[in-house]
Write a structure and sequence with these properties.
This protein has about 270 residues and is α/β, with parallel strands linked by helices. It is about 35% helix and about 20% strand.
């Protein structure tokens, strides 16, 4: 997977890689600010970095939730970031039609957890030739993700990764079972731990997802120690005013200290 991303830096650092950025593209200035800071940190620590931003949020609880600034506008910002910083970019897709559209702007197509069994979506993503990152459904076992990945591979695209983002526990919480990481790694594909979404508290009575960002460091360190190849973190200069998923995002000014600790964990286990 990583070899397919020609503009990915620090591939030979023996570090974990990171997919990081805001939940959604809220505007060009904000996106560039976040990308610039993450790149600066990752270059300092020799961490391979893929910038993440959703061009559209289609999986919202309420009709009045923020869904985006416009598909083409957001995708153009993602492409501009990729070119300006010479880094790969990733965005979510929700329909088969999204795949071809988004592939013209980004390097990695991400399949949302709730859609990880949608064959037409997986096949459409695979056929673009882009790297495909499949998030494990909160309702699926780690073992069952082999079938989602195989749909990509059987389409002729070998560039696939799997991301764990916790498993439903009751109605309003998720748990992260670290046994899933070695289970997923047995598929011989890159395994990513989505740290921030694993700390969501979905299905709140307000219709706005909650979260436990104070546990980001705990989950991230455990994931690296368990052998995750990469981590996924949503970050924002001011999560309290973020238009999407602010309740479980990491403040941008806390990212460097966290990544420094994760690098030390990584060095201790290799």
């Amino acid at each position: 997977m990583l070899d397919a991303l020609n503009n990915l830096k620090h591939k030979n650092s023996n570090n974990f890689f990171i997919l990081a950025g805001p939940c959604a593209i809220e505007g060009e200035e904000m996106a560039f600010e976040i990308a610039d800071r993450i790149k600066e940190i990752c270059d300092k620590l020799k961490i391979p970095f893929i910038f993440k931003g959703s061009f559209r949020k289609a999986n919202r609880s309420r009709l009045d939730s923020f869904t985006g600034i416009g598909d083409e506008k957001a995708l153009k910002i993602l492409k501009k970031i990729g070119i300006h910083f010479n880094i790969p970019t990733v965005t979510d897709i929700h329909t088969a039609e999204d795949a071809e559209m988004a592939a013209a702007y980004v390097d990695v197509l991400q399949i949302p957890a709730f859609l990880c069994r949608q064959t037409d979506l997986l096949v459409a993503a695979a056929k673009t030739g882009k790297v495909v990152n499949i998030k494990k459904g909160q309702f699926l076992s780690a073992e069952s993700m082999q079938f989602a990945a195989q749909k990509i591979l059987d389409t002729g695209n070998p560039n696939v990764a799997i991301t764990d983002r916790g498993t439903m526990f009751g109605y309003q919480d998720l748990i992260v079972d670290m046994r899933a990481i070695p289970t997923l790694k047995s598929l011989h594909l890159p395994v990513i731990l989505d740290v921030t979404h694993s700390l969501q508290q979905p299905n709140q009575s307000s219709g706005v997802t909650g979260g436990k960002p104070q546990l980001i460091e705990t989950i991230a360190k455990a994931g690296i120690a368990a052998g995750a190849d990469g981590i996924f973190i949503e970050t924002h200069p001011n999560p309290s005013v973020a238009k999407s998923d602010g309740a479980n995002m990491l403040p941008l000014d806390q990212l460097e200290a966290l990544l420094e600790k994760l690098v030390r964990v990584r060095q201790a286990i290799i």
